[in-house]
Amino acid sequence: MRIDVITLFPELVTGVIQHGVVSRAADKGLVELKLWNPRDFTQDRHRTVDDRPYGGGPGMLMKVEPLLACIQAVKQENPLARLIYLSPQGVLLKQNLINQSVEQGNLILLCGRYEGIDERLIELEVDEEWSIGDYVISGGELAAMVCIDAITRQIPGALGHQDSAQQDSFSGGLLDCPHYTRPELINGLKVPEVLLNGHHQLIQDWRDKQAIGRTWMRRPDLLGEMELNERQQGLLKEFIAESKLT
Ligand SMILES: C[S@@+](CC[C@H](N)C(=O)[O-])C[C@H]1O[C@@H](n2cnc3c(N)ncnc32)[C@H](O)[C@@H]1O
């Protein structure tokens, strides 16, 4: 999968590319990342990338011509990619959207700065707008880094352990179960006994029950979006009964 990123601050985005899962996936050739700076497409001596908004008011916008020239150059190299504008006004990013994007293939991520970009560029060039949450950050770079990381994790072969992504929160619509590592006892708190007995089916049942129970307690909205099968309904009943005892 190829992801191009259009940003006035490429050095910010290199942080996610040069470390951890994304860097290893790039080394394996699973994901190809290229950064583009609209400043390289300016024509004036000062390499201007911002401009005043029509109608006045505070703040600047990204200057249209260098951004448009940059977008067109990226599209020439990556013609089948969908262009995503990172924006607080976009559709909220969820795991489903991330998984779908991996299936749909190449992407161009456009990072806004200042007050954003000219509305006509959105009409002309942008396929979708994505938001990472109902809050405003100063530029699209952090949002692009979130997308790159979340997408790369879903590319088959990108994670060390093949099943890791399938066990994470949201993958089956539920939150992940709690996890424990050594030591067995810390400040009076013990690892749940079932995890120590080596009985794989009992461990799986416990993990599934915790995942459903935790989702019920913390994110009941997620349960409302899915249909629990009979086994899951049973596990949830057990979880609720046990939580009343403690
Ligand atoms: C200061 S914001 C501009 C906000 C814009 N004036 C608005 O209120 O919709 C600058 C840039 O940060 C990015 N950005 C800000 N919040 C975001 C969010 N929640 N999700 C994705 N990108 C965001 C966008 O690329 C945006 O163009």
Brief summary of the model shown:
42% of the residues lie in helices and 15% in strands. It has 246 residues and is α/β, with parallel strands linked by helices.
Characterize the structure shown:
- The mean pLDDT is 96.
- The longest helix has 19 residues, at 200-218.
- The strands form 3 sheets. A 5-stranded parallel β-sheet has the order 2-1-6-5-7, with helices on both faces.
- Helix 4 links the parallel strand 5 and strand 6 (107-111).
- It has 10 helices and 9 strands.
- The chain folds into 2 domains: 2-153, SPOUT methyltransferase, trefoil knot domain (Alpha/beta knot); 169-245, Trp Operon Repressor, Chain A (Orthogonal Bundle).
- It is an alpha/beta fold.
- S-adenosylmethionine (SAM) binds next to strand 5.
List keywords for this structure.
single chain; 246 residues; alpha/beta; Alpha/beta knot; Trp Operon Repressor, Chain A; 2 domains; 5-stranded parallel sheet; two-stranded antiparallel sheet; 10 helices; binds S-adenosylmethionine
Mean pLDDT: 96
Shape: elongated
Strand content of the residues, in percent?
Answer: 15-25%
What ligands are attached or bound here?
S-adenosylmethionine
> Uncertain segments of ≥5 residues (pLDDT<50)?
none
Give the N-terminus to C-terminus distance in angstroms: 48 Å
How can the largest sheet be summarized?
A: 5 strands, parallel
Indicate the CATH architecture of the largest domain.
3-Layer(aba) Sandwich
Determine Rg (CA atoms, Å): 23 Å
Number of domains: 2
How many strand elements? 9
CATH superfamily of the largest domain: SPOUT methyltransferase, trefoil knot domain
Sheet with most strands: strand arrangement? 2-1-6-5-7
How much helicity do the residues have?
40-55%
| Annotated CATH topology of the largest domain | Alpha/beta knot
